[in-house]
Design goal:
Order of helices and strands: HEHEHHEEH
Number of strands: 4
Strand order of the largest sheet: 2-1-3-4
Radius of gyration: 14 Å
Number of domains: 1
CATH architecture: 3-Layer(aba) Sandwich
Number of helices: 5
CATH class: Alpha Beta
Distance between the termini: 23 Å
Strand content: 5-15%
Helix content: 25-40%
Length: 162
């Protein structure tokens, strides 16, 4: 089974799969939070979505409240915050767990991927990023501190676009 076939609802509760969220395109998957010091990365995530969406690439936010309780809101509150504060138009999933016994299958499939520093395993904090290809295979992993507009992220994104 491909990671793209993993069941995951949209932020509004509509059931579906990761394939539905990515549109079957290469994608940047990022665990997001509204009350984190890294939350301003939403601006660069939206810019990536706007720049590369028309070229067949998706940005997908996966809200997670496992790090310092920094995504405490309801789905409606998360949607309103992202839209009103950062103009987010890229797809968002339901809240998920990225670590521990309740880890979502999407993250179970991603955590073996190492970043440039060789770090793999548990997600370290909000805004850890994974680039996947159109088949759902992980291409790259970036630490939370690497911003979405970093040239390494942009190069990984461009490398997945046909």
């Amino acid at each position: 089974m491909s990671i793209l076939d993993a069941a995951i609802a949209r932020l509004d509760g509509t059931p579906g799969t990761l394939r539905d969220l990515t549109g079957g395109q290469p994608a940047l998957l990022v665990n997001v939070a509204s009350k984190c010091g890294l939350t301003p990365q939403y601006t660069a995530l939206e810019a990536l979505h706007e720049a590369y969406g028309p070229q067949g690439f998706a940005v997908v936010g996966l809200p997670c409240n496992q790090f310092g309780g920094q995504e405490p809101g309801t789905t409606e509150e998360i949607a309103e915050f992202c839209s009103a504060t950062y103009g987010v138009t890229f797809p968002m999933s339901e809240k998920v767990e990225v670590n521990g016994a309740g880890r979502h299958p999407v993250y179970s499939a991603l955590t073996d991927t190492a970043d440039e520093g060789g770090e793999s395993g548990d997600i370290r904090w909000n805004f850890e990023k994974f680039v996947i290809d159109a088949d759902g295979a992980p291409v790259a992993r970036f630490s939370p501190q690497v911003t979405p507009d970093d040239e390494r992220v942009v190069a990984a994104v461009r490398g997945t676009i046909a």
